[in-house]
Amino acid sequence: MKQQSKGISQARSRSSGTEARHATGDDRSRSSQAAKTLLQQWAEAVEGYFGQLPARYPAAPPRLVEAVQYSLMAGGKRLRPALVLECWHACQRANSIHDRAPTHSPAGINPGATPKGAPLAAAAAMELIHTFSLVHDDLPAMDDDDLRRGRPTNHKVFGEAMAILAGDAMVTMAFELICTDAEPALAATLVRELASATGPAGMIGGQVLDIDEVKRPENLEELQTLHRMKTGALLTASCRMGAVAASATPHQLASLDRYGRHLGLAFQIVDDLLDQTATPEQMGKATGKDAAKGKMTYPMLLGLEEARRQAGQQLASALNSLDGFGVEADGLRAMAHFVVERNV
Ligand code: IPE
Ligand code: IPE
Ligand code: MG
Ligand code: MG
Ligand code: MG
Q: Residue 343: left (phi > 0), alpha (psi -120 to 50), or beta?
């Protein structure tokens, strides 16, 4: 764990807010490397937690536990838990800098970077909900995909019924883990954030709009609404939950909410772009599926160039949202660059 804090601290000090705003090619690759290091470090924390999960459910049918672990431990970018933990860490750091050292706290100081309790449970719960959404998204009744995170999809290995039930189990586990690991008042707030981002006005509502073959989005506004719901809601909630777990000020919470909204939209624009331009080997999932399924996407509506430009605009707005933060948000700046500049 000490090793991990050091890694996060080094990644943090390699990226600065100035670099993020005036990115040259070199800066971009430094920023992207810093983000990858952060993602990896936070992923280790969350995956350590996931490794302990089977022991928490000794009475569960082993095949169900196996199906849950199969999708959960298959890798993935772990972007959402990293956002929970990076927002938690940024607020913690901002508030401790202001409380204890009002001027010139050097970048790279890393108090309390080892997550446990509420922030770690919130991060793990978010990844459980995200993984459930992927398992169900891949089902024959939805996108009908065979490859996810570089592996055969859950239903290809365990059958459709088990994939549905494994997804269901991930949802209930997510809420149970928060309620078990966070103190009750904080747990109530975290559960409400996660439930409302997941539910009918969030990801699930967005998935319903997405599968409607009769009424496709016809303009940018309708497409933005769909993207904000199906993808943006969970990314925004990741930022909000990290902030809430760190007892952020209302101003910090509002800034991170705005950051998450812009990042969430950018994320799905880039997912749509990569569906058209990347290979399955790069992505660990099938590509070219949106056109095949007749989905309306950013590149389909606007063309590749304009879609890229719009993703860049969302990146700029996400970075602006962090203006109230200092060096403590450099990790979030690097992660925003990664979301838009990634090729995975
Ligand atoms: C894929 O999300 C689903 C979308 C919301 C577009 P990710 O690209 O974050 O998937 P993983 O977690 O890295 O596998
Ligand atoms: C899925 O969007 C969003 C979810 C809520 C899972 P996509 O259907 O575009 O995600 P991928 O491309 O299959 O990962
Ligand atoms: Mg889908
Ligand atoms: Mg899909
Ligand atoms: Mg997609």
A: alpha
Task: State the DSSP code for 228.
Answer: I
pLDDT digits (tens, 9 = 90+) for 156-210: 999 999 999 999 999 999 999 999 999 999 999 999 999 999 999 999 999 999 9
Taking the CA atoms of 251, 257, 258 and 260 in sequence, report the sign of the dihedral they define: positive
CA 151 to centroid of ligand 4, rounded, Å: 14
**Helix 79-100, helix 250-277: angle, nearest 10:** 150
Asked if residue 230 has its Cβ within 6 Å of ligand 2, the reply is yes
| Dihedral pair phi/psi, residue 291, rounded to 5° | -65, -45
Q: Count Cβ atoms below 10 Å from residue 183 Cβ, excluding itself.
A: 9
Is the Cβ atom of 8 under 6 angstroms away from ligand 2? no
Element (H, E) at 151: strand 151-152
Give rounded-to-5 percent helix, strand, coil for the chain.
Answer: 75, 0, 25
Q: Decide: helix, strand or coil at residue 147.
A: strand
> How big is the CA angle at 260 (ends 185 and 172), to the nearest 5 degrees?
45
Question: Would the CB of 228 count as within 6 Å of ligand 1?
Answer: no
Residue range 2-10+24-99+109-341, CATH number: 1.10.600.10
Q: Alpha carbon of 52 to those of 30, 291, 332: distances in Å?
A: 34, 40, 28
Type of residue at 86: E
Instruction: Quickly count: other Cβ atoms within 10 Å of residue 317's Cβ.
Output: 17
Residue 107 phi, psi dihedral angles, 5° rounding: -65, 150
Which tokens hold the place of 170?
A: 């991930």
Q: How far is the CA of 290 from the centre of ligand 5 (A)?
A: 7
pTM of model > 0.85: yes
Domain layout of the chain by residue ranges: 2-10+24-99+109-341
**Tally of residues, the chain:** 344
